[in-house]
Amino acid sequence: MGAEAHQEKTRVTKEAIRRALAGRQKHAEPVASYVPAAVLVPLFEKGDDYYLVFTKRTETVSHHKGQYSFPGGRPHPEDRSLRDAALRETWEEIGLPPGDAEVLGELDDIATFTTNFLISPFVATIPYPHQFTANPAEVAEIIEVPLRALQDKGNFEEEVVEVGGLEIPQYYYRYGGRVIYGATARIVKHFLEVIGPPAWSGGGMS
């Protein structure tokens, strides 16, 4: 098989992501001891790869100051669901209209260890190109990271840290001098596992 044919066979597509999300049972944590929140995991296709959109939080927000995250936050009374909360927050943070996001499915709930949030991630494709508008009160920077970079073993690190007397794995994704870690990195790792084996496990995209 030639290199081009192999690349076409293994590259990620929107429908493959939709099928991967639909073909699994979401793991939902009990919410009684957590504060519910939701994020959008925005994807767009450019060239022969998909890109994830991240925001860098400002130093003036209440939680996770200066960290890279997906757009999202706590639900408001007018939100009919956590999915609606994720779409509304994305509109408020980066100027993406809810109608421009095609939600493909959900990932497992992710709990934060220090701020007691329970995050419900919703994966969605968005138009490309799109002119994002950062909300200066919440977003210091918007970055676009290719899936290939996130699946590259050279950009991934893992360590075990102690939080509240518990030893937990901490993940780091590095790209362009930036570091994605914490709950966002755990969402990224889970997403990559759902759509296919990482590149360093002998599968995924070439």
- Total helices: the number is 5
CATH topology of the domain at 3-146: Nucleoside Triphosphate Pyrophosphohydrolase
CATH class of the domain at 3-146: Alpha Beta
Mean pLDDT: 88
CA distance, first residue to last residue: 13 Å
How many runs of DSSP E, i.e. beta strands?
11
CATH architecture of the domain at 3-146: Alpha-Beta Complex
Oligomer: single chain
**Helix share bin:** 10-25%
Q: Please give the largest β-sheet.
A: 8 strands, mixed
Provide the gyration radius in Å: 17 Å
Strand content: 25-35%
Q: What pattern of helices and strands is seen along the backbone?
A: HHEEEEHEEEEHEEEH
Outline the low-pLDDT stretches: 1-10, 198-206
SS-based class: alpha+beta
| Name of the CATH superfamily of the domain at 3-146 | Nucleoside Triphosphate Pyrophosphohydrolase
Shape: globular
Give a description of the structure.
The chain has 206 residues and is of the alpha+beta class. 23% of the residues lie in helices and 34% in strands. It has a domain at 3-146: Alpha-Beta Complex (Nucleoside Triphosphate Pyrophosphohydrolase). The radius of gyration is 17 Å and the shape is globular. Strands 1, 2, 3, 4, 5, 6, 7 and 8 form an eight-stranded mixed β-sheet that branches. The chain has a three-stranded antiparallel β-sheet with strand order 9-10-11. It has helices spanning 3-10, 14-22, 82-94, 147-150, 182-195; strands at residues 35-46, 49-57, 68-69, 72-73, 102-106, 110-111, 117-125, 139-146, 156-163, 166-175, 178-181. The model is unreliable at 1-10 and 198-206 (pLDDT under 50).
